[in-house]
Hints:
This protein has one domain: Nucleoside Triphosphate Pyrophosphohydrolase (Alpha-Beta Complex). It contains 4 helices and 12 strands, in the order H-E-E-E-E-H-E-E-E-E-H-E-E-E-H-E. The model has no long low-confidence stretch (mean pLDDT 89). Helix content is 20%, strand content 31%. The strands form 2 sheets. Strands 1, 2, 3, 4, 5, 6, 7 and 8 form an 8-stranded mixed sheet that branches. A 4-stranded mixed sheet has the order 11-10-9-12. Helix 1 packs across helix 4. The protein has helices spanning 7-15, 77-89, 142-145, 178-194, and strands spanning 30-39, 46-52, 63-64, 67-68, 96-101, 105-106, 112-121, 133-140, 152-158, 161-169, 175-176, 203-204. By secondary structure, it is α+β, with helices and mostly antiparallel strands. Strand 10 (161-169) and strand 11 (175-176) form a beta hairpin.
Amino acid sequence: MKLLLDPGALDRALSLHLSPVTIPYPPEARPAAVLVPVLLDGGPPRTLLQVRSQELRDHAGELSFPGGKPEPGDADLLATALREAHEELALPLDLVEPLGEMRSVPVITGKFLLHPFVALVRGTPPLRPSPELERLIELPLTPWIKGERPIHGTVGTWRGATFATPFFRLEGGEVLYGASAVIFHELLERIATSCGHALPPLTMVEERPWGERYLGQVK
Length: 219
């Protein structure tokens, strides 16, 4: 499979109309925004994930995209995503080109509904993770799209609905799961479809990578 990923392919990917996400969320879930950066600097196409500090109260040690809750000065949720990426990664916003929004996804606790915005990052900007982060991970896109690395899935019941959710075992031993994994999976699905390919199906397993972390909230 030959995969040519360029800004035009990303634009086509973001213009696709996909079926709604079937993951339910409570009406009291508050809006939040994340930035899904795509780096196209001549090397392998990749995105950026952050590893949250083990000292944080919520989602400690988990992998996520930069983002958070809106603040009064934010014009909209895209502005929230851009501000958070700058605060958390020191990402120079003059190198960021927003491309579009993907489907909203609830976090596993049900407290927030994430609105993911995909953006092209030009060049190779120096990044400086905030103290709330342990480190950054550059995650390549093409191995998952080509099927060189399996995309795992597990079936769970949450808030009365049963559905399959993806998760990703990374080379460093980390596991991307939850809302961030759903967002990453949609990005891969959109890119594969825009390039004329079908994303490989989930490799289903019984493992739940979050273990007992959310016992009582995920059944």
